[in-house]
Amino acid sequence: MVVMSRAIYSGASLAQVRSDLKGLVEFEYEGMDSTDLSSQLKTTLVPHLLNYGSPEFQSMFNAFPEEGALIGAELALHVNQGVTNWQVSPGGAVLEELCCEKLCELFELSEKSEATFMYSGTYGNQQALYLALHRHAEKMGFDYSKEGMSGFVNPQNLKIVVAEDVHFSVLHATRFLGLGENALLKIGLDENLRINPAEVMKVLEGHASEHEIVCVVVTLGSTITGSVDGLPGISKMCSEKGVWLHADGAYGLAYSLLPEKEHLFRGLEMVDSIVWDPHKQLGIPIPSSLLFLNDGTNFERVNVYSNYFNRKEEEMPNPGLKSPPSTRPFSALPLVTSIKTQGLHGLRQRLRSSINAVNDLAEFLIDDAEIEIMNEPDTGVICFRVQPVEIDKQDLCSLQEYVYKRTNLEGKRAISIATIKGKKVLRLVSVSPEVTVRALKSTILSIKEMAKKFVKN
Ligand SMILES: Cc1ncc(COP(=O)(O)O)c(C=O)c1O
């Protein structure tokens, strides 16, 4: 087990980090003693790694590995199984299948649902858009896997409906799929920073009839604010219009396992595809991402067989047919050992701790005139602006930038910055049980002091 100091990281400059690490890539003719190498790693590399286990790590969705997950991760590393199919790992392939079946059940997806592990949420989003295009092409009467974009009469009319703050992985997806970013039809956000359902409906109703809507993307826990888009109205409309509905739950889907948050996720079984990242608040070692389909037969749209591997004639389990990589990591194992050791109760407690920390902070700040809260937290993220009474309103954006930079430079805590409706805002995140309301309050105190210094200068 690597022991890290309590600090966020060493605080060293880029030049210092490069200089400390240079020795690690000086490859010599003779190999190095492994004990010496371990001690070199401990002194040169570890101090410069970010300590996700620190209560002051409040900026991003990363977490240290959950203890039970380590049991599975260590075994997976030890045996280095590729789990594409029965031929390379009978136990690996079957455990992945069983785990996917159980997760579909836990998330209460449809009877026909199936899932696959992916290398990242980004690839999950990309594959979901591919599936949407494939089905749209089928409606147009051709096989997208053979003809690709050239099969569409007017490819420039194809549109993907997204919120204006959609995760940038969806932008990547449009580029990689040959759609281009212009295919994104951006929808504004409502008062709690969720995709505006009325605007989505308008687009689907055909007010922009020159467009062919291929897919609507909703986000279950947006990256910037953690807001969960409303599913029922949008999913009903998508199913009536035959439009693929994709839910990016990379960050937020886990919270649907909490009874007190269930209402935010109503309608999950109506969505075509859903992405989830257990490597975020569950602390499952990277890579750990999944793509769920409520109608599992849609995975056939990505099946590619070869004559030596993933053969069509093979009768044994072949989870690797559901996504492109021919070598796939044993991501199911750490997730299984984590849930097994914590139990569902422990897992829910872990999720609850991050939500409660942020909710308690929001309540604490409600009457604070020096803090303008930007979102009523649905999950574990809060965005706000610090605004000392003496501040000139036109300096508010520069003030947030100043506080963000100064805080991170100090190296004691990590916070993030974002833009909401044209305003620079500070963003605090709690993804692991270490980030308590106490730790968050202490950050607010430090931010306020810094803001006062900005005003004085
Ligand atoms: C909402 C959302 N979607 C997608 C992603 C991308 O997932 P990954 O980092 O696993 O590629 C993220 C990452 O933070 C995210 O917050």
Commentary on this structure:
By secondary structure, this protein is of the alpha/beta class. Helix content is 38%, strand content 13%. The longest helix is centred in the last third of the chain and has 34 residues. The strands form two sheets. Strands 1-7-6-5-4-2-3 form a seven-stranded mixed beta sheet, with helices on both faces. Strands 8-9-11-10 form a four-stranded antiparallel beta sheet. The chain folds into three domains: 49 residues, no CATH class; 248 residues, Type I PLP-dependent aspartate aminotransferase-like (Major domain) (Aspartate Aminotransferase, domain 2); 106 residues, Alpha-Beta Complex (Aspartate Aminotransferase, domain 1). The chain starts with 13 loop residues before the first helix and ends with a helix. Helix 5 crosses helix 7 and helix 8 runs parallel beside helix 9. The protein has twelve helices and eleven strands. Bound molecules: pyridoxal-5'-phosphate. The site of pyridoxal-5'-phosphate (PLP) has 14 residues, from helix 5.
- Main beta-sheet strand count, sense and barrel state: 7 strands, mixed
| Number of helical segments with 4 or more residues | 12
Radius of gyration: 24 Å
Strand order of the largest sheet: 1-7-6-5-4-2-3
Strand content: 5-15%
Give the structural class: alpha/beta
Total strands? 11
